[in-house]
Each structure stands twice: as structure tokens, then as C-alpha cells.
Design goal:
Elements: E1 2-10, H1 15-22, H2 26-34, E2 41-46, E3 54-58, E4 68-77, E5 82-90, E6 97-109, E7 113-124, H3 138-155
Helix pairs in contact: 2-3
């Protein structure tokens, strides 16, 4: 069984500012700081942040499921602000998924604002097709809000995320 789900979050920030975090290794460095209840550690195992880079993500102690997972950047498009990552080991792959890819696209809009479009594409093992693993875009939404708030704080224009 294959499928995808998508979440969009309007940032109130220029696309280049948002991509300055999402499109770089700063994103991984910020996760344990901004959302320690979601991610406790992100380590760069291979690469420089471009396509082919591999990260090891560690969840906080007590998180149900796998303790870690590896993800590989399969696309980093700095012109169109698109990053695609695929889980290569652990995480959701230990819980019925054959494939799990996340695409982040930062879409610039008029008036110096942008949208973070987060899409999860997945494939579930046949044995789980009748009762697919439960997941949602809640985590991606939480990350989008936290990153947007961080960028606004860095720019000195803090306002509550929508």
C-alpha cells in the first residue's frame, strides 16, 4: 500500500530565510534545542548537508518504538527550495513501512511570506496493508512552528506562529 499526506504552514517570513534553516545542517542542530521532547540528538554520519548526506537521529529516552533512525538526503535543491529525505534504517522501517520519504518545499509568496509544505510519501508492507501503521503530519507541523518562531526570534520580530 502506498500513500502520501501533506501539511502546509504559512510562516510570515521570506522563503530564503526559511530555507536558510531547512536547507542546511542548521536544521538538524536546532532540533534537539527547539524540540528536545521530539529529538534528543542529530549526528551527521556522511556528507556536507547536500544530497547523499546521512544523519543519525536519536529520540529522547522513553519514546515508544525505535531509539534511532538513519535518514539520507536524496535531493537538496537550493534554487527551488526543496529537500527530500528517506529513512534508510530504523524508525518507521521497524514498524511496517517499506519506504518513508519526507519532502520539504519552501514556497515563496507575495509580501515576503512563504509556506512550508511538508509531504510524507510512504509504502507499507503487504502484511500491514489492512492495518497500516498510524502516523500524521503533527510532528512536521510542530517542527514548522518551532523553526518559524526561531527565525523570527533571530530576526528580532517575534510574533506567535499561526
Amino acid at each position: 500500500m502506498k500513500g502520501s499526506i501533506c501539511h502546509e504552514f504559512e510562516t510570515g517570513l521570506p522563503a530564503a530565510d526559511v530555507w536558510g534553516v531547512y536547507g542546511t545542517l542548521l536544521f538538524g542542530k536546532l532540533m534537539p534545542q527547539l524540540l528536545p521532547e521530539v529529538v534528543s540528538k542529530v549526528e551527521l554520519l556522511e556528507g556536507d548537508g547536500g544530497a547523499g548526506s546521512v544523519l543519525l537521529i536519536t529520540f529522547p529516552p522513553g519514546t515508544p518504538g525505535s531509539e534511532t533512525f538513519k535518514e539520507k538526503f536524496i535531493k537538496v535543491d537550493n534554487e527551488n527550495y526543496i529537500k527530500e529525505t528517506i529513512v534508510t534504517e530504523g524508525g518507521v522501517l521497524d514498524h511496517g513501512f517499506q519506504k518513508y520519504m519526507v519532502r520539504i518545499q519552501i514556497i515563496g509568496k507575495e509580501e515576503k511570506t512563504s509556506i512550508i509544505r511538508s509531504t510524507m510519501e510512504y509504502e507499507v508492507n503487504d502484511e500491514h496493508a489492512d492495518t497500516p501503521p498510524v502516523f500524521s503530519t503533527d510532528g512536521l507541523a510542530t517542527i514548522a512552528k518551532a523553526i518559524t518562531k526561531y527565525i523570527k526570534e533571530q530576526k528580532g520580530s517575534v510574533e506567535a506562529p499561526k
